[in-house]
Amino acid sequence: AQSVSQHNHHVILSEAASLELGCNYSYGGTVNLFWYVQYPGQHLQLLLKYFSGDPLVKGIKGFEAEFIKSKFSFNLRKPSVQWSDTAEYFCAVREGNTGFQKLVFGTGTRLLVSP
Amino acid sequence: DAGVIQSPRHEVTEMGQEVTLRCKPISGHNSLFWYRQTMMRGLELLIYFNNNVPIDDSGMPEDRFSAKMPNASFSTLKIQPSEPRDSAVYFCASSYTLGSAYNEQFFGPGTRLTVL
């Protein structure tokens, strides 16, 4: 069965610091990869996704993620965080090239950005 | 578009009571997903429907949980009887699915369930 690991459960940064959140998955076949964000009191929103092509994916709000197939990783990055980036971030994977719509999520990383 | 609508937003009940959570997907979407979010296990898929038919219910924890989708605009998740360990936030999401293509799942605001 697929699994997704997010090793950092809590991250605290100061504004303008750089961010990298780790995500590793276990599935060996073709995958679709996602990062979702959940701001305090709000529902999950899609931040970015990778299906194929350029392994460096740009998302909204200055976020990007890099798919490294050999490492089964899809880490999220942002060069300079803002206080408004305080949220919980979820990595998710879907088996690609299938009709299955199921997403498997990691347990999430809570990011706190101090002003 | 109002997005995915869930009700109630908060539910507090006592152990042994029946709980029904409701979801209205985005109009035109044909796939609907129920997720549960807990501190320990994160976000888990419970069940998903495509064209009102349950496709994968392998995440439903036990027989106390049941889900229905009587039509394209409404789904329920029922817990009977409820237990304290069912306390969690339950999210509904919907998407438009055509063949094997994947389209973004849009999430509702969630229902925070507390079972005393």
Describe it for me?
The complex is a heterodimer of chains A (115) and B (116). Chain A is mainly beta. Chain A has strands spanning 4-5, 10-14, 19-21, 24-25, 31-38, 45-50, 56-58, 64-68, 73-78, 87-95, 104-105, 109-114. In chain A, a hairpin with a 5-residue loop joins strand 7 and strand 8. The radius of gyration of chain A is 14 Å and the shape is globular. With 116 residues, chain B is an all-beta fold. Helix content of chain B is 0%, strand content 53%. In chain B, the strands form 2 sheets. In chain B, strands 2, 4, 5, 6, 9, 10 and 11 form a 7-stranded mixed beta sheet that branches. In chain B, strands 1-3-8-7 form a 4-stranded antiparallel beta sheet, with no helix packed on it.
Describe how the helices and strands are arranged:
The complex is a heterodimer of chains A (115) and B (116).
Chain A: E1 4-5, E2 10-14, E3 19-21, E4 24-25, E5 31-38, E6 45-50, E7 56-58, E8 64-68, E9 73-78, E10 87-95, E11 104-105, E12 109-114
Parallel strand pairs in A: 2-12
Antiparallel strand pairs in A: 1-4, 3-9, 5-6, 5-10, 7-8, 8-9, 10-11, 10-12
Chain B: E1 5-7, E2 10-13, E3 19-24, E4 31-38, E5 42-50, E6 53-56, E7 65-71, E8 74-79, E9 88-95, E10 106-107, E11 111-115
Parallel strand pairs in B: 2-11
Antiparallel strand pairs in B: 1-3, 3-8, 4-5, 4-9, 5-6, 7-8, 9-10, 9-11
